[in-house]
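Notes from the pairing session

We agreed to fold both candidates in a single pass and log them together. This is the raw record for the first candidate, unedited. Please don't reformat it; downstream parsing expects exactly this layout.

Candidate A
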Amino acid sequence: MKFNRLLIPVIALLLVAGGFLTVAAKPNPSNGMPAVAMAAQPRPSYNIPAGEIVDSPNASAMVETPRKAVPAAPALTDAVQPGASVSGFDGSSTEGWQGVNQSNIAWVAREDRLQQSVPDLPSEQTAMFVSKDSNFADGSVETYFYATAGSPLGIVLRGSATEYYRVTFHMNVNTNNVSKAYIDRVSVDANGVEKKVNLGSADISKFQGYSLETWTLARAAIAGNRITVSINGTEIMSATDSTGGLSQGWAGIWTQSDNGTQFDNIRIQRTAVR
């Protein structure tokens, strides 16, 4: 027992001295003491498999994907009003049609569809594609449309440089219950400013708005002062212009000048002028 008591202070002294030497061996810039060489540490090993280099699954995440292909539009039915004068756009030529725009765009037949050529930045201005024949009075306009931008679009009837009827369809937005389709009488002043009078709208239960990237069939028919509108063969609204109405003019389709909608198989059926 005496031997152990004597060893304890000696062992403690050796431990303290060893700690002091360890601290003193570290480099100290203040006294110019050089660093003590450390023993080489083992490096981690890497296993590189043989074979070709494989790209990361996310390597192309920032690469722009090609534009989604647009399928061919369905054909219109053969139903034609008896005695009607029929004209149309089938995707091959714009002859007999004209653009009526508030911006610098052109309508072109490309990939068998009616599309916009927009040399400037897209805008929210009105762009119409209508018949050069300005004798449309009673009759109907049918068209398939394919929307990619969610812009308002639709059909125009009995148009001139100063007035026309406009049917408007909006995209399906399920966060609200406001109407997604309207019938307006639009007047345009000398400065190109529009003023519209609403004639009617579609109840949300009958039309929830159009869907993107799908062909939708729209039809607007006018007889006297009454306009009737249908989507995919189902009537969604009608309205009467109690002011006496516009008598005749051109007819066609419209959307915003943003290259966000394509049209195909446009058909105008015009009955005799009253």
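Candidate B (folded immediately after A)
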Amino acid sequence: MKVALLEPYSVNNCGLHSYTSNVSKGLKAEGIDVIDINLGYLGFLKAQKYIPNDVDLIHNVSSYYYTHGKLPKPSVMTVYDTIPWDHPEWMSLKSNLYHRAFGMRSIRKYDKLIAISCNTARDLRQHKIKQPIEIIHPGINEIFFDEYKDDLEDHLWNDLKFDLYVGGFDPRKNVDLLINWWSDSKYARGEFLILAGGNGWNNKNTYKLIEQTDGVLCIRSPSIETLFRLYHNCLDFYYPSLYEGYGLPLAEAMACKCNVHHFGNSSLNEVKPLHWKDQIKKIIRVYDSLLE
């Protein structure tokens, strides 16, 4: 089986990058012949130009990047969420215009869809999406299942009594609420609150709040090894997001046996730590059904 994976090249160190890179690596590990096609927004709209004639099927692994027109082979798209249509207030005007112009029109042209949560599948049905939808939760990187072993590098974290948040800083992530609650709460156990991540949109006020609040520390774009140590040394993990297509940091924290706190909205009650190897096999079964 030869699969053309349509992947965005302009993302890094975020959930979208984690998903696309792990699907590609996982498929190759299972013996699938994968053609990685990395494109930007405009490249996706002209994707037919870049797809080799000898592939068996096409998988667009990011629903936020849209193709235009009919694709030349059986096709499947991974859909993360329906934020562009249900919550336009959480995106810039430019992003809103792009999603409104191309989004649902593109999604409806794929033969099958993979939703990363039951919540996303329900939201798609509310938008009158009629294609078959397979629900396949994402896995997490295998490092988070490793046994934690204290070493010299970890003494820094052992001496720091901290609570932890991992993720973006855009308004949907609700980081401002967490900072204000943590700084005033008698229930917060940490002497410090570490916010690891920082990417996102419309987050200038969040960075100002971090600077103004005692005990709040920010680690921008942490490595996966740093995240592993943070999860294993924090007192409590907080994930106050207002909406998630899935919620990978929460799954990572669970795998590291953190004491987790999160809201029960959107997909967050579905989250659990899953191995990518098992989830890749489910994706391959979707491919097989497309080629029957």
